[in-house]
Amino acid sequence: MEVKxxxxxxxxxxxxxxxDGDYPFSWHLRGRKRNWELRMQLQFKVLPKEPLFFxxxxxxxxxxxxxxxxxxxxxxxxxxxxxxxxxSNGQDPSTLLAGRESEPxxxxxxxxxxxxxxxxxxxxxxxxxxxxxxxxxRRSDGAxxxxxxxxxxxxxxxxxxxxxxxxxxxxxxxxxxxxxITGGIVPGMTVDFNRLCGSPPVYFSVYxxxxxGSEKRHLKSxxxxxxxxxxxxxxxxxxxxxxxxxxxxxxSWDGGMDLLDLDPTPAPATxxxxxxxxxxxxxxVDLLGLG
Length: 291
Description:
Blueprint: E1 2-9, H1 15-20, H2 26-29, E2 36-43, E3 52-57, H3 66-80, E4 86-88, E5 106-110, E6 116-121, E7 137-138, H4 143-155, E8 161-167, E9 174-175, E10 180-181, E11 191-192, H5 194-197, E12 202-209, E13 223-232, E14 256-258, E15 265-267, E16 272-274
Parallel strand pairs: 13-14
Antiparallel strand pairs: 1-2, 2-8, 3-5, 3-12, 4-5, 6-7, 6-8, 9-10, 10-11, 12-13, 15-16
């Protein structure tokens, strides 16, 4: 699989830049409720045989209780309002019998949970850093027709097309730069991401989930991962080196992903910024351009 990713984020850590529109992709994000938008393009070399999921995962079990658990439930409910998704707090490996596989804390959704999609012939796909307002279909244009069209496209995947996906639905509740749950998911409260994830980084990935009969957990042994990327904010850096990422994709962002330090390049066609050239394995790659 060939993969392209682009993340954009408002400078929520710098009110002056946000007010002045002095940041990459302000032409797109300014004046919107969303804090960020994630864009992804996929081209398959071998078609998947099992359902595909886009997921956020933690590397270790985190005990979640009390008020934090209630915030988590509210956030998951907001995500589920956009469509089917899978959530598990995972299992503490220390409580399992020796040799038993534990499930990592996981939030996963099928690709049809994205907010916008486009199917293009190779070579005609849209520029991820450009204006996609008139491209493809959007959930906001009618959820029923949108879901039907996207499910049909996923059922008819080919190696001849490039599939573009955009996701922003819950971004008004998640400030990834400040590393906080915000935006009124629980009125009057903001919650440090670390109360849910323990500590950065978090990992996001696309994987194929093998059918294992009655087993419904998203275990590592059931996954064929196309890519898995570590992500964090420079305001909340990891205390330890991230796990070594793994990938089956033609994907050069194979290291960590710091969400603040990209040197953006202006994109004359849109007035915005284009992502810098991806770096090779072992390098940290920031997709936001807010340095």
